[in-house]
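Document type: protein sequence-to-structure record

Subject area: structural biology

Format: plain text, a pair of labelled lines:
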Amino acid sequence: MQALFEAVVSGATDPELEGVTVVRKAALSATAVDVLAADGVVLGTPANIGYMSGALKHFFDTVYYPTLDEKRGMPFGCYVHGNEGVEGAVASIDRVTTGLGWKRVFEPVTVLGTPGKPDLERCWELGATVAAGLG
């Protein structure tokens, strides 16, 4: 997860992107105020028993209603890592973000096992794509 996260941040902070401020928050410390201040979001989670992490679920539980009306259409992307199937985690993220009215701007990056160079490149592209749409 750390390598994937670092690749996303590297893409989002590419020097060629202007006017973008990247704020990094752990799911358990991110609040509705953070989401209301954001122009876009990249979500990352391990797949735990075929679902998003409890931390990401908690994040959604705490930000859902306070941001529901104001953040419709907000661009987002996500990455999910697991040792087995990650489809359930991606589906659960899709359900919540659809309810929030967020707009996915990059296909979910899914990684099984140890991340390889192509996985890291896709995460870089994810970060850069979300950030490029904001500047």
